[in-house]
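Saturday, quiet lab. Running sequence design on the structure tokens for the scaffold JK sent over.
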């Protein structure tokens, strides 16, 4: 038989209401917060330590780079940087296609923002650069503002031809304008310490959104796999229309491109599975993506796949770096909404992954500084023809798993990308675009695994499952921008719904303890006779104050309106009886003179007068006897028995004489809450039920005092530290023994 070991504790103290607590705990009336003037003066004060702290907070690299240990970190960062740099090359070119930009701009995006984040970022393990979700969001904007139809011209032999160069140049301008505006939003949010905004994007929402975005990415790459040219659709249901159009064009599939795609997919999937199975044994993961790109480029170049089989290839890749250019500000008005959405989504992905690695390795990530770092990466990158960036899950995992310790690994990966752009980039001109599409497909595996969230959330939290499904479906059906807006709106509605539908409960005591638990959830609890203890599971505010009052009446079994009417009726009857008694007394006084005048002529028996008795006076005496409940002692003296307590106990038609409102879950009170509590005290007081508050936090007490809640009718002595304090006070006040509370546990 299993034996349980119990630990007991005994505390002996006085019953504490709020007044006595303030005295015993020596509550101060002073304010520890500096005044506005003091804060302004402090912010303007400059000193060398203060300046150093400010510089280190804004440029974190100055804090950790001088202490960089070459012996401990150099080897791991070198291996990690090379591995990530190799991944940057294929992913940069492939994700550029998602953004509807030439592949070389994906390489630029894998270079400049990484260097900026090295200076200003606080995460040691995330890999900044191109990412599928960000690329598809940028691509939806570039294709909307620069569709192929705007660049159609007449070709040779009367054919219709799209001016690819002009289209791509304008799309680059759009992407740069979108990126610089995204960066400005992120910097401003970081400066005003608005990093907490990402908290409103719950994990189910982010995962549902990225899964829906993965479906958009998948559909957008089907045209390269099958070698078809579907029409371009925008707005709600564009994904469905595109998928239908691709299915319609399947009979026109370019077989050579399909073969290239299938072979590439088979090789990539097989080798990636090998990397996963032998992750612990391999010193480095096999760079299969880079190997496939090199092999495919060689085969395409020497076999002439472009000319013989009309396979679509990457085309010209300029060598060298372009001079910085100022983004076109005239496009800001057309992309401002998209820029804000990109800013929020990019930051949400970045901070969620950054905090995951920080928690694993025991360091802290500054959410506001991450906003600034990401914003600077986007802003600076936009001047060098980069589009919006965030961290990549696959590259970050490689950077962490291959031994990367700091962002020096990011610098090394940038060097590899820089060498490629300067010297090797032109060699990939014959690379089939289908190869890049298959790389995108394979890297979506992690996102598609998020479909496993559905059965998990079904078992754990139905509301989060609903948020996930609504986010996924709205992203699929309404596109990325509207889908995000609908998702955030729905997520906020679920929060409001939970606030509007809190759990209300009546508490009972666990015998032998000072614990008071929900009587519906714990069968071992019992209510204190005559006392109702009521609690809400959430903060009482203007959105649920009325529901709080209704639940209080329902749970306590007290119909306030009915009892108030009954009390008014009783008061009216008492006034009528009192008025009748006064009239009877007046009539008796008038008759006294007549009785005295006849007493000399009356008949006496045994010394008692047998004169007439006034009937009205006799009736009133009966009523008075009934009301006063007169009794007799054994010696014949009269005893007046007061039933004041019995009247209070039965005033509400039950045995309830006191109600305790447990406000321990309330974090703040507003004007509506204060007025509601004041009305509860007034209404229940009118039917002779005492109200008490317990468990108020210090901030709530201060807010009640500021609102003028406490008064002569609601003294501060009605506020107690704990429910048990209030119960003991009530029992003592009513002269009941508190031994009923200390029955030992079974």
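Result came back. Writing it out in full:
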């Amino acid at each position: 038989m299993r034996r349980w070991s119990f630990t007991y504790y005994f505390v002996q103290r006085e019953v504490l209401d709020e007044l006595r607590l303030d005295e015993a705990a020596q509550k101060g009336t002073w304010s520890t917060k500096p005044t506005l003037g003091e804060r302004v003066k402090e912010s303007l004060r400059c000193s060398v330590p203060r300046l150093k702290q400010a510089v280190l907070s804004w440029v974190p690299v100055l804090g950790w780079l001088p202490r960089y240990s070459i012996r401990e970190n150099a080897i791991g960062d070198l291996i990690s940087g090379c591995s990530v740099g190799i991944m940057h090359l294929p992913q940069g070119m492939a994700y550029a296609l998602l953004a509807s930009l030439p592949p070389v701009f994906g390489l630029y995006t894998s270079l400049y923002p990484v260097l900026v984040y090295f200076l200003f970022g606080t995460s040691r393990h995330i890999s900044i650069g191109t990412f599928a979700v960000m690329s598809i969001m940028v691509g939806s904007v570039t294709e909307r503002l620069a569709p192929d139809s705007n660049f159609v011209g007449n070709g040779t032999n009367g054919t219709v031809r799209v001016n690819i160069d002009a289209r791509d140049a304008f799309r680059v301008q759009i992407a740069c304008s979108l990126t610089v505006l995204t960066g400005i939003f992120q910097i401003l949010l970081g400066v005003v310490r608005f990093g907490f905004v990402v908290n409103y994007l719950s994990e189910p929402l982010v995962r549902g959104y990225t899964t829906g975005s993965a479906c958009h990415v998948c559909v957008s790459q089907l045209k390269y796999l099958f070698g078809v040219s579907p029409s371009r659709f925008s707005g709600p249901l564009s994904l469905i229309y595109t998928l239908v159009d691709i299915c319609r064009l399947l009979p026109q599939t370019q077989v050579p491109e399909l073969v290239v795609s299938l072979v590439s997919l088979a090789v990539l999937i097989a080798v990636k599975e090998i990397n996963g199975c032998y992750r612990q044994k391999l010193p480095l993961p096999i760079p299969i993506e880079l190997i496939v790109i090199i092999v495919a480029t060689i085969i395409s170049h020497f076999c002439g796949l472009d000319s013989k089989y009309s396979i679509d290839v990457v085309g010209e890749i300029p060598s060298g770096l372009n001079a910085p250019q100022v983004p076109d500000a005239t496009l800001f008005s057309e992309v401002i909404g998209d820029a804000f959405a990109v800013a929020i989504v990019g930051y949400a992905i970045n901070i969620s992954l950054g905090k995951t690695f920080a928690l694993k390795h025991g360091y802290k990530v500054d959410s506001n500084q991450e906003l600034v770092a990401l914003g600077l990466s986007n802003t600076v990158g936009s001047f060098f023809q980069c589009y919006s960036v965030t961290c990549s899950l696959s590259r970050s995992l490689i950077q962490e798993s291959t031994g990367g310790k700091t962002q020096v690994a990011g610098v090394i990966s940038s060097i590899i990308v820089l060498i490629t752009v300067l010297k090797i980039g032109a060699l990939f001109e014959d690379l089939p675009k289908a190869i890049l599409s298959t790389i995108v497909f394979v890297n979506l595996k992690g996102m598609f695994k998020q479909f496993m969230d559905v059965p998990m959330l079904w078992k754990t939290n139905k509301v989060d499952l609903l948020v996930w499904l609504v986010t996924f479906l709205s992203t699929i059906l309404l596109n990325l921008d509207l889908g995000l807006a609908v998702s955030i709106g729905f997520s906020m509605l679920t929060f409001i719904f939970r606030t509007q539908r809190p759990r209300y409960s009546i508490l009972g005591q666990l015998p032998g303890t000072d614990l008071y638990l929900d009587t519906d959830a714990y069968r071992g609890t019992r209510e204190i006779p005559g006392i109702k203890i009521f609690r809400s599971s959430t903060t009482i505010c203007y959105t649920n104050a009325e529901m709080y009052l209704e639940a209080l009446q329902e749970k306590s079994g007290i119909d306030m309106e009915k009892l108030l009417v009954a009390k008014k009726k009783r008061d009216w009857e008492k006034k009528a009886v009192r008025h009748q008694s006064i009239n009877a007394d007046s009539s008796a006084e008038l008759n006294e003179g007549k009785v005295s005048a006849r007493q000399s002529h009356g008949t006496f028996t045994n010394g008692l007068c047998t004169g007439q008795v006034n009937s009205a006076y006799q009736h009133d005496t009966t009523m008075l006897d009934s009301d006063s409940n007169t009794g007799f002692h054994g010696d014949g003296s009269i005893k007046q028995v007061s039933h004041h307590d019995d009247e209070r106990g039965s005033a509400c038609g039950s045995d309830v004489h006191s109600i305790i409102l447990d406000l321990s879950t309330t974090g703040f009170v507003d004007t509506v809450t204060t007025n509601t509590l004041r009305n509860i005290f007034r209404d229940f007081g009118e039917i002779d039920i005492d109200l008490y508050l317990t468990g108020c936090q210090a901030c709530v007490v201060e807010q009640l005092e500021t609102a003028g809640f406490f008064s002569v009718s609601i003294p501060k002595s009605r506020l107690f530290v704990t429910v048990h304090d209030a119960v003991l006070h009530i029992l003592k006040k009513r002269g009941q023994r508190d031994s009923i509370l200390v029955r030992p546990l079974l």
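Notes for JK: The first helix runs from residue 18 to 24. The CA atoms of residues 599 and 607 lie 12 Å apart. Ask whether to fix the surface positions before the next round.
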